[in-house]
Amino acid sequence: DIQMTQSPSPLSASVGDRVTITCRASQTISNYLSWYQHQPGKAPKLLIYAASSLQSGVPSRFSGSGSGTDFTLTISSLQPEDFSTYYCQQSHTSPLTFGGGTKVEI
Amino acid sequence: EVQLLESGGGLVQPGGSLRLSCAASGFTFSSCAMSWVRQAPGKGLEWVSAISGPGGGTYYVDSVKGRFTISRDNPKNTLYLQMNILRAEDTAIYYCAKKAVGITVAGTYGMDVWGLGTTVTVSS
């Protein structure tokens, strides 16, 4: 199975900060990588797919990069509604594993 | 509006069974691979199972292989997860999710629509 390792967790930040979350795959997955935001009591939300493509309707302050085994999610200027938990997921090979999550907190 | 609505969760004793359903609307159901994802209390998201658009390809995480069966009824726009021999560690909120584009489970597109989940509690 492909293991997905996220860091850091948790991540302490303030409104207006530039935040970067990293995700590393245990083997190469090309660009088969998505990022999700999940808040308690809500459905997870797709932010980024294909490692760097912004999902429709997602604010442009979110961006993704990377290929192969190393990926990043960047929030250019953290907003109050962005305090949440973020997950990466590989969709290269079954099982489609998630990272352990990064909680972005004040 | 594109929507997914899960049902079928509840309290079950260890060793018991449940069948989850996910009713889809607002999109061409048969054109999209579908997944089940769960979140145990205090834990992160865990992908559980997925099925291709036509239903011929099914995939599972190792911990549920031989116990869970994913299926779909495309004319009824419904996804299912039959869960047998349930264990305490299966306790979680179970979400169904739609792949954004494509009938295959793998691929670069993520899961763009999720339900609100149904809660499964396995306890005596």
Structure keywords:
heterodimer, A: 106 residues, mainly beta, six-stranded mixed beta sheet, four-stranded antiparallel beta sheet, 0% helix, globular, B: 124 residues
Describe the structure.
The complex is a heterodimer of chains A (about 110) and B (about 120). Helix content of chain A is about 0%, strand content about 45%. Chain A has about 110 residues and is an all-beta fold. Chain A has a 6-stranded mixed β-sheet, with no helix packed on it. Chain B is mostly beta strands. Chain B has no helices and 11 strands. In chain B, strands 2, 4, 5, 6, 9, 10 and 11 form a 7-stranded mixed β-sheet that branches. In chain B, a hairpin with a 6-residue loop joins strand 5 and strand 6 (about 60). The radius of gyration of chain B is 14 Å and the shape is globular. The model of chain B has no long low-confidence stretch (mean pLDDT about 95). The interface of A and B includes residues 46 and 96 of A.
Brief synopsis:
By secondary structure, chain A is an all-beta fold. Chain A has strands spanning 4-7, 11-12, 19-25, 33-38, 45-49, 53-54, 62-67, 70-75, 85-90, 102-105.
> What string, H for helix and E for strand, traces the elements of chain B in order?
EEEEEEEEEEE
- Please, what is the average pLDDT of chain B? 97
Output the structural class of chain A: mainly beta
Query: What does the overall shape of chain A look like?
Result: globular
Largest sheet of chain B: 7 strands, mixed
Let me know the number of strands of chain A: 10
Query: How many helices of chain A in DSSP terms?
Result: 0
Overall 3D form of chain B: globular
- Strand portion of chain B: over 45%
Could you say which structural class the secondary elements and strand pairing of chain B correspond to? mainly beta
Low-confidence stretches of chain A: none
Q: Could you spell the SSE succession of chain A in H and E letters? A: EEEEEEEEEE
Major β-sheet strand ordering of chain A: 2-10-9-4-5-6
How large is the radius of gyration of chain A? 13 Å
